[in-house]
Structure formats: structure tokens, C-alpha cells
Design brief:
This protein is mainly alpha-helical. Helices cover about 75% and strands about 5% of the residues. The chain has 9 helices and 2 strands. It has helices at about 5-20, 40-55, 60-70, 80-100, 100-125, 130-150, 160-170, 175-190, 200-215; strands at about 25-30, 35. The chain has a two-stranded antiparallel sheet. α5 runs antiparallel to α6 and α7 (about 160-170) runs antiparallel to α8. The protein is elongated, with a radius of gyration of 23 Å. The relative contact order is 0.11.
């Protein structure tokens, strides 16, 4: 897989904050003493970093929540002291992201969710509801591709567009791209109620294929 846009952005912001830290100047008033950096530059870096953490880590992650908490000015604190706290959170997030720990935790949660949904699709198929089963399997596939796009820094879109972009980025090969295209066709036919266009075996194979693809992507 090529280096994701998120990893590139982490490196860009790391360079920017190093430059910002080097620009600090001595500062003293009646309440605090230490160093100070340019307020505007600090705000710009904070906004860009908060956006990255929201996308790469999630707004419910410890990294994002702690960063937002540390952004708030505290009494008797210079803005450089606040910057150092933000840098500490940023570096922790970067290390966890580059180490694959964020992806691993998210993958475990998603795997459990996908297993449940695919089991539901199998039960619906057993009950004779092949349309509903195919639609659910299609939702699992699309959700998995959407997450793969997020991990690779690719803008999500339609299933077919995400499929093409992920293959182009080297996330998976052309063979898997063609398999996903075929699965998308079954999903679309099911969504439009075209029950005569596929049979129960097609849906059974679809569920198994989606399960395998999700496993490879996570």
C-alpha cells in the first residue's frame, strides 16, 4: 500500500510545529514568565491538526478528545506551554497511527460488527429473503471500502468509484477490483428488486466473498 495521505499530513504538521516551536521568544508579565509563540500560527496549526486527528483517529478517540481539551487556554500558562502539551498529544497520535494501533483497534470492532451483519444476511437467505440478504452483504462491502478509503487517505464516494481508486492506489489488485465490481452488480440488482437476475447460490457466494474481502482489508 502506498503511504497514505494521513501519514503524509502527520509528517507535514510535525515539520510545521517544529518550526513554530523554534520561533518561540522570551515572555514575561505580572503573572507568568517563559516563552511565547505567534498566536495566529498556533491557531492555524491547531485547527489543521484537530482536523487530521478527527479524520485519522476519530472524534471519539482519546487523541482527539485530549487535543481539544489541551487547546483551551489555562490560567498562568503561556501559549508556548500550551503548545508543548498539544505537541505531546499530536506525537502520541502520530506514533499510534504509524504503528497501526489505531487501525488494529478499529478493525477488531468492525470485524465483530461485520460478522453480525453477515450472519444476519445468511439467516435471511435461509429464510428465502435473498433480496434483503444481498442488500445487507452489499452494505457491509461498501462500508468496508469506505473505511479502506479513509485509511488510505482517499475521498470516499460511490462503491464503484471507491473500488477503482483503491485498486489504483495499490490497496488491492485488479483481480479483487473485478470481484468487487461483480458483487456490486448483484447488490444493485437486489436494491432495485430484480430478483430474477440472480439466485440463492449467487447470494451465498456473495456473502462468502464479502466476508473474505473484509477480512483482507482489515
Amino acid at each position: 500500500m502506498k503511504t497514505s495521505a494521513f501519514a503524509k499530513r502527520f509528517n507535514e504538521l510535525a515539520s510545521q510545529v517544529e518550526e513554530l516551536d523554534r520561533s518561540k521568544m522570551p515572555y514575561r508579565n505580572d503573572f507568568v514568565s517563559g516563552f511565547r509563540v505567534n498566536d495566529t500560527a498556533l491557531i492555524e496549526w491547531s485547527v489543521k491538526t484537530r482536523n487530521l486527528l478527527a479524520r485519522a483517529c476519530g472524534q471519539d478517540s482519546e487523541h482527539y478528545l485530549e487535543f481539544v481539551k489541551r487547546e483551551k487556554p489555562q490560567s498562568y500558562q503561556t501559549n508556548h506551554e500550551r503548545l508543548l502539551e498539544l505537541i505531546a498529544v499530536f506525537r502520541a497520535a502520530q506514533e499510534d497511527y504509524e504503528g497501526g494501533y489505531l487501525h488494529s483497534v478499529r478493525s477488531l470492532v468492525q470485524a465483530e460488527l461485520f460478522d453480525t451483519e453477515l450472519d444476519q444476511a445468511r439467516e435471511l437467505l435461509k429464510g428465502g429473503f435473498k433480496l434483503a440478504a444481498a442488500v445487507i452483504a452489499g452494505v457491509v462491502l461498501e462500508t468496508s471500502l469506505r473505511q479502506a478509503c479513509a485509511d488510505a487517505g482517499i475521498e470516499p464516494g460511490s462503491l464503484n468509484r471507491m473500488n477503482a481508486e483503491l485498486s489504483k492506489a495499490g490497496v488491492y489488485n485488479v483481480l479483487m477490483q473485478k470481484q468487487i465490481t461483480a458483487l456490486a452488480e448483484v447488490r444493485n440488482k437486489a436494491a432495485h428488486g430484480e430478483a430474477e437476475e440472480f439466485n440463492e447460490r449467487d447470494v451465498s457466494d456473495m456473502i462468502a466473498s464479502v466476508e473474505r474481502i473484509v477480512s483482507e482489508l482489515t
